Amino acid sequence: MDGLILYLHGFCSSPASWKARLLAEAMAERGLAEKFHCPQLSPVPAQAMADMGRWIEAAAEPVTLVGSSLGGHYASFLAERYGLPALLINPAAVARIDVGKFVGDHVNYHSGERFSFTNEHAAQLSAQAVLPTPSRYWLWLETGDEVLDYHDAQTFWFGCRQSVFEGGDHSFTRFPEMLPQLIEFAGL
Fold first, then answer.
1. Which pTM value belongs to this model?
2. Helix-strand-coil split of the chain, %, nearest 5
3. What is the pLDDT of residues 57-101, one digit of tens each?
4. Which letter does DSSP use for residue 135 in this model?
5. What is the β-pairing status of strands 104-107 and 161-165?
């Protein structure tokens, strides 16, 4: 089976996130551990995308992007730049939200690393918002997302395949039961 999954975590998150760990375990159980890549993303949006762009360009197999929250925004940016399929989980529709509200000091949920998110970083995020090509995407949204309004994602990725589930929360509570569909989406 040819193909790789590049998982992009959310803001203040890491490869130690719940979804990243579950996906890594599911891939390993299927003998596909080497097909899964989930790096720690730079908190600087332009740097994060430059790093991931270099990884995609060096990949020896086709890449499927999976992004959660801010990682969904990043996956969308990379999908358009490189013509890749992307599965977005409660994604941040950066073009429809005030990214300035994230300016300030933050702490990574898992590592405890402290970082500052500046006005320049907010501008970098906004500049990455590109209109999607509907055929590339599958959105997974839960209406109970307490961090992001799922309507923003529905609107920004209008015309894309969307699965909207009642309830849940920003973590996307249905993730464990949806893992087989994610792996199938990636062609693995």
1. 0.95
2. 40, 20, 40
3. 999 999 999 999 999 999 999 999 999 999 999 999 999 988 888
4. G
5. unpaired
